[in-house]
Amino acid sequence: MKEAIATKGPVFAMMKFFNDFQYYKGGIYECNENSGYLGLISVCLIGYDNYSNCWIGKNSWGTEWGEKGYFRCRIGGADSLGNLGQTFVEIADVTNHLWYMTPLPARYYVSGKKTNIEWHSLGVNKINIYLSTDGGTSSSWTEIVKDMDASSQTYEWIIPEVESSQCKIKIIDSEHTREGSKCSIGAAKTDGVFGIGKERSVRLIYPKGGETFYNSHRYYIYWDCTKNVSKVNIYGSTDDGSTWLEEKVISNGEAQKKSFLWTVDTRKFPPTTKGRMKITDTEYEIDVNDINDDIFTVSDEIIGFNDTKHNKHLPEELSLTADPNPCRNRLLNIRFSLPKNTCISIKIINLIGKTVTIILDKENYGKGNYIIHWLPINLASGIYFIEMKSEQRILNKSFLFVK
Known about the structure:
By secondary structure, the protein is mostly beta strands. It has four domains: 2-90, Cysteine proteinases (Cathepsin B, Chain A); 97-197, Sandwich (Immunoglobulin-like), CATH 2.60.40; 202-299, Sandwich (Immunoglobulin-like); 304-401, Sandwich (Immunoglobulin-like). It contains two helices and 31 strands. The chain has helices spanning 2-8, 308-311, and strands at 11-18, 28-29, 37-49, 54-58, 70-74, 88-90, 97-102, 108-110, 114-122, 126-132, 142-149, 154-158, 164-173, 178-182, 194-197, 202-206, 212-214, 218-225, 231-237, 250-254, 259-263, 272-281, 289-291, 296-299, 319-323, 332-338, 342-349, 355-365, 368-374, 382-389, 394-401. It has a six-stranded mixed sheet with strand order 2-5-4-3-1-6, covered by helices on one side. Strands 8, 10, 11, 13, 14 and 15 form a six-stranded mixed sheet that branches. The longest helix is centred in the N-terminal third of the chain and has 7 residues, at 2-8.
């Protein structure tokens, strides 16, 4: 490969594509096989650096990706498709070849919008392009364009009105009636496919930014999403979103619940004054995501009902309080004490006895003092009751909410 670059100049090459390559920002890339193999992509190798033992290449994903559209990656043990993503097969001298580039794997394309189908070609004059919505498993391929000039290497495609996570593109040399590249591009769960469908989105509502989250306290995280999102991941950052913690705050959470009771653990989410959270659609993390508006603080200080000082005197009876009261469009602190290990449920009910929110649903707690920080979402101004039901009795506490 080095000889080809030195004597012929830049060469096209096939590269094993792992999910982490999409997030490459610079430096010498070494793939993480555990991030998930997505197929093969085409790149252009323009040089190499013997001192740093790396290839220098150009991708087709625009100047916002990588090192202004370029990348460096560690040279593998052989110039062949080995086990790692940083080894290649040169295809520059192959005749009658079609090399698929985009649409990309693990991506989502919205019906009615435009995107480019891109390819490289060698010795091919005309091509046909087809779409499959079942992963290419059947003989049913829909024609997108016929007898396209192969040298243009791009086609502006209006995404069709279909709903599928198993889409593939097939490009055929129309003059020689032989198949070219059968794109390996798509959704993270199925090698070689991508998604098409209606607009889908996720949006973090809380935290917004400016909050302080204390170790061992429990806070509700809130989000909104379209109906076609089924699962979400939420990631934490301690450096204003420059990097994201490996352990997720939420993994494969039920998207349509739109809330999650988070227990702050500073062993998993280290103390920071530059905290951020990011929510993603588990199926299409690159295209469907949102980051909270501003930074927040995570503190390892344990204060309030959960601190050591208060727990020196463990409770002898069941109790329930709430503050501030009135609650003026801010966090409501629900504090409760349990004299023994018990299963409890907590819910918010209105004046006519209708349940408007479930805070806890039959969760087991040990003897002690506890606090849950709850943000009233979509709640009208008025008087409400907190109902706590334990195995022994039911307690109620009223509060006034002012929007």
